[in-house]
Specification:
Blueprint lengths: L7 E5 L3 H12 L5 E5 L3 H10 L4 E2 L3 H5 L4 E4 L3 H11 L8 E4 L4 H7 L8 E7 L5 H7 L14 E6 L5 H13 L3 E4 L2 H27 L4 H7 L4 H5 L6 H10 L1 H10 L1
Parallel strand pairs: 1-2, 1-4, 2-3, 4-5, 5-6, 7-8
Antiparallel strand pairs: 6-7
Length: 258
């Protein structure tokens, strides 16, 4: 659709993933404008200061109503809620995507979007420590994109326009990631093994050691940063729990295997 202004990309959620995505898109900018929204004003200010977005909008509707592409980078529960909230405000011809590691719940939420709005779920396999890597590179020259060489899973919603899928695939390639098409059920079952299972096992291990009569001595012998990896790799605990509950059948099967 012909537009009277440059393309407008809105990033909803400016935590580590959203801020990194904004920075990666800014680094390969063509003529599009980057708009950011987050419930935490300090995250919007930080993203503006880092050049990850051109404009910050506190109002969710204002952030999406004129967007050509909307990227939801919030935690699972919040992301599902956000898709429902923006459904009546995104314009026909736009594309909505996400970066959430649980695709079935996001595709179910996308049913609320109006006809003419394409939805393509996405999941970049970034790993832990993203916030720390972003912080370490501030003021130290241009860092390598955290998306360089990263597998970026892509699952179009039923009926998604092929042109919209191509837009997202081209964007993924532009930031250096590798588009990877996969079935949503297969994706969620496999992510349960490589993401939720290690987090649950690590949290259980940390809890067991923490309640040990020898916990003080154990803490002295744990290699540096290992506790953090056991405690969900720095991810928000509520988000990790929501992801595990969303894929409970696969998680339980992998726990039995472990």
């Amino acid at each position: 659709m012909a537009r009277e202004h440059p393309p407008h990309i809105s990033i909803l959620g400016l935590g580590p993933v959203g801020a990194a995505l904004g920075s990666a898109l800014a680094a390969v900018r063509t003529d599009y404008r980057l708009v950011g929204h987050d419930r935490a004003p300090e995250r919007v200010r930080a993203a503006l200061a880092a050049g990850a977005i051109d404009d910050g909008r506190w109002n969710l509707v204002a952030a999406v109503e004129d967007a050509d592409l909307v990227v939801v980078t919030e935690p699972l529960g919040q992301a599902v809620e956000t898709v429902a909230q923006i459904a009546a405000h995104v314009r026909p011809g736009s594309l909505v995507t996400d970066t959430v590691p649980a695709m079935r719940p996001m595709l179910r939420a996308a049913v609320a979007l109006p006809p003419g709005v394409a939805y393509v779920s996405g999941h970049p396999i970034l790993g832990g420590g993203l916030a720390e890597r972003n912080a370490d590179t501030e003021g130290g020259g241009p860092p390598a994109s955290p998306f360089a060489g990263v597998v970026y899973c892509v699952v179009p919603a039923p009926g998604a326009d092929a042109g919209a899928v191509r837009v997202l695939v081209d964007l993924i390639a532009a930031i250096g990631a590798e588009p990877y098409f996969i079935d949503a059920d297969e994706h969620d079952a496999l992510v349960a093994a490589v993401d939720q299972l290690p987090q649950l096992a690590g949290a259980a291990l940390a809890r067991a050691l923490g309640f040990s009569p020898s916990s003080d001595d154990l803490a002295r012998l744990v290699p540096r940063n290992l506790w953090a990896s056991w405690l969900a790799g720095g991810r928000d605990g509520a988000d990790a729990a929501a992801a595990a509950l969303a894929g409970r059948d696969a998680v339980l099967a992998w726990l039995d295997a472990l």
